[in-house]
Amino acid sequence: MRKEKYELPPEAIREMIINAHCHRNILDESCIQVAIYDDRLEVTSPGGLYNGLTYEEVMNGHSKIRNKGIANIFSQMGLIEAWGSGIKRILNAAEKYGLPKPRIQEFDNMFRVELFRKNSLTKRERIDFIDELELGRRRDGESSEKGRRRIAILN
């Protein structure tokens, strides 16, 4: 049987999105934002930490649920294993996949979790690949400007 291996751990992405819904400030008209970049996935939710909760407490597994109704529904669906376990599960999933440690930030009344991709090519592999591109460019008579743009994308 074929087992799929994803670039980013699905369990971390699921936790990021569930946490964003359970802890967002529903009085803020901003949307939960999911942004996908070349090097990372970000989930940003409106509303900072709730009811005096500190960053250190969050990192130690403490939780104060802002949206209890939403959290209860997710719990009844089996999507929440234990209260306060979301951040720890994100960190563990990233470590299990060999990814850099996720960045967790609170700023401007927003809360963001960033899950970073692995650098798919080592520095040596990138240099070798760029050298191959440069040789091919010269061989094919490609303009220098077009070659520089192609190489800039890799860096």
UniProtKB/TrEMBL annotation:
Gene3D superfamilies: 3.30.565.60. Pfam families: HATPase_c_4. PANTHER family: GLPR-RELATED TRANSCRIPTIONAL REPRESSOR (PTHR30595), SCHLAFEN ALBA-2 DOMAIN-CONTAINING PROTEIN (PTHR30595:SF6). This is ATP-dependent DNA helicase RecG C-terminal domain-containing protein.
